[in-house]
Amino acid sequence: MGDEHTTSGRDLTRAIAEATRAFFTPTSLEDTLRGVTESARSLIPAVDCADILIVRGPKKYQSHAATSELPVRLDAIQERVGEGPCVDAARNEEFVRCNDFRSDPRWPVFGPAAVDAGVLSSMSFRLYTENETIGALNLFALTENAFSDEDEELGTVLAIHAAVALYAANKTEQFKSGLASRDTIGQAKGMLMERYGIDAVQAFDLISRLSQNENIPVAALAAELVARGSDTAAARNPR
């Protein structure tokens, strides 16, 4: 028993080390998430399949990095019926474990559907940073009572890695979007300055007032002004 615990400890240490090294290796978000689900299968013998469920809006979910078609099908069922361990983990609870879907009363519709699909056990870990819920790491087994407390510890490590990767990707996307908006606003200001002989501060004030009057976000209004200006220039200077 002591040797088994030591082996599990080494596995956990290796998982943490590999996850840390991954932050310094350029890779896509999908590759990172797939590394998480594949690690779950290799580090936790009871896992038959896994995926990461991403929350998109109040009732929209997307399966990522699935190790087979089965998790995708299970996520689709949960989205359709509005219940299940993955939904609970993504929306309400930090960790959801089911030892046997045949006898667990929490999901009267999804439970029998999971059994019909051949899945009897699951663990779902919420992926979140601060107060923002992102989704869940879901691990499924074809046997009942498949997961141990040590499996839960390993799953938690992998879930943390997935959550950080998602958080970083979201922040990068927001940063890129912010840069693009700033560039568009700058173009709109330049057009107004040239057309009306005003300075940069006056041009931005004009855009801000138009934004408030028309109830249109500044970035969206700037994009429309740039588009109209480009269309006008093209009409005046046909090729």
Fold and architecture overview:
This protein has 239 residues and is of the alpha+beta class. It is 61% helix and 14% strand. The protein has a five-stranded antiparallel sheet with strand order 2-1-5-4-3, sandwiched between helices. The longest helix is centred in the last third of the chain and has 48 residues, at 149-196. It is elongated. The N and C termini lie far apart (80 Å). The relative contact order is 0.10. Mean pLDDT is 80; it is low at 1-7 and 231-239.
Task: Reconstruct the topology from this structure.
Elements: H1 2-22, H2 29-43, E1 49-55, E2 61-64, H3 69-81, H4 85-91, E3 95-98, H5 110-117, E4 121-129, E5 132-141, H6 149-196, H7 200-214, H8 218-236
Antiparallel strand pairs: 1-2, 1-5, 3-4, 4-5
Give the helices and strands as they follow along the chain.
HHEEHHEHEEHHH
Strand arrangement across the biggest beta sheet: 2-1-5-4-3
Major β-sheet annotation: 5 strands, antiparallel
* E-strand count: 5
Question: What global shape is seen?
Answer: elongated
Strand content: 5-15%
Radius of gyration: 25 Å
Category from helices, strands and their pairing: alpha+beta
In a nutshell, what does this entry contain?
The chain has helices spanning 2-22, 29-43, 69-81, 85-91, 110-117, 149-196, 200-214, 218-236; strands at residues 49-55, 61-64, 95-98, 121-129, 132-141.
